[in-house]
Every structure is written in structure tokens, then in C-alpha cells.
Amino acid sequence: MRATVIAGLARGTRAAALALGLPVVLFVAWWLLSANSTNIFLPPLSRIVEAFGQVWLSDVFLRDVLPSLRRLATGYAAALLVGVGVGYLVGRWAVVRDLTSPILAYFRVLPAPVLIPVLLVAVGIGDATKLIVIALGAVWPILLNTADGVRAVDDVQLDTAAVYRLRHRTRHGLILRAASPQIFAGARQALGISLIVMVVSEMLMSTDGLGFTVIRFQRTFAIPQMWSGVLLLGLLGFGLAKLFELIERRVLRWHRGATGREEPR
Question: ABC transmembrane type-1 domain spans which residues (predicted)?
Fold first, then answer.
């Protein structure tokens, strides 16, 4: 028992060292190389860290960071629902795929921020516009990966389900489960896109949020504060990616075992 605990701690320490080793080295190098900087646009990292504590460890976090996270979560959740639902239909039935193929080919290459002027006129400057933009930016990787995953489901599985006369609901569940590795791959890409589109939408049409605050610091020449916002965005992206990785690892544990890709101990 004790040996198992020690081995687990060793694996955790090794994983943490691999994940944080290079960022720590880069952070220290940035701190040392910028220590004597007199460039107003490239301040020393020590000033950026000081500004980080003054700005984000205050009521600004509640006023600007939490609204951004709420928009990100809502838009991303909407993209997940629409992407998986429509992607399942496109991948499952050829007639739906043939009907929607030209439309999907057009909109998938259309950058979501391009629609901001149209949505401002049609919807207004409220949160609804930002949520639509985030969802439109994030939906395509999920939709396309879901469709590909559903199309790639082994025919033997479908035939077996038909032979055993499983209910349609059960069959749909089996298909989604088989396609879940590709669905998660699309969802992982969509998470990064959601964060990017969220910041862009807040920079262009918001009075609060991370993007708005960073651009406000830039316009008022509060350069250390601006860099602190960029640093916070990077930390948020890193944290969200690691959280998603933990969820994916737990949900797709069966897939790694079935394909013989179980992580070494």
C-alpha cells in the first residue's frame, strides 16, 4: 500500500515537472532579461507582476473576469449542444449531409468576428451578440468532428445493434459513445477558439470583461496593467485546457483501454 502511494506521488511529481518545467524556465528568463528594461512598451516583468496583483486580485476580478467566464461557458455550451446535435444528423444520414454540405462549407470558413457588425445591427450591443459570436466561432470544430466520428462508426456495431433489436435511443447512445473520441477532439479545439472569440468580441463591443479591460489599459497607456491582462488570459487558457484534459481523460478511459493506449505507470 505504501509503495503504491509513493509510486503515485512520484508519477504526479513527474507529470507536474513536465507540465510546468518549461513555463517556469521561460518565466525566469523573462524576469531576468527584462529586469533593466527602460522601454515603456516592454516593462520589466516585476512591474507586470506587481500590476497583476493590484488589478486582478481586487474587485476588478468580479467586475470583469467573472462576466467573461460566464459568456465563455454559455457560448461554449451552446456550441457543444448545436455542434453535437447537428453533427450527429449530418454524419448519420447521407441525405442530411448532401443537403447541408454547401451551407456548411460556406459558413465554416467565415470568421465569426466578421459577423459582429451584422449582429450589432440585428441584435444590439448586449450579451446576446457576444454569446452568438462565441457559439458561431466554436461550433464548427465540434460539428465537423462529430460528423466524421459518427460516419466512422464500425458497421459491425450497427449491425449487431440491429440484430439484437436494441431501441433506437440505445442505438443512438452507442453511436455517440463510439464517436466520442472525435467529439472530444473537436471540443478541445473549440475551447481555444471560444476564448479567442470571447476576447475579440469584448474588445470590439463591450463595457466590461477581460477583452474590454485589456484594450482600455492599452488606450490609456497603462502598459504594465495591459500586460498583466495578457498574462491572465494565458493563465486562464492554460487552466481551462488542463481542466478539459482531466475531464477527457476520465470520460475516455474506456477508449484508451480498448485501443491499448493506457498511460504508462
Answer: 83-251
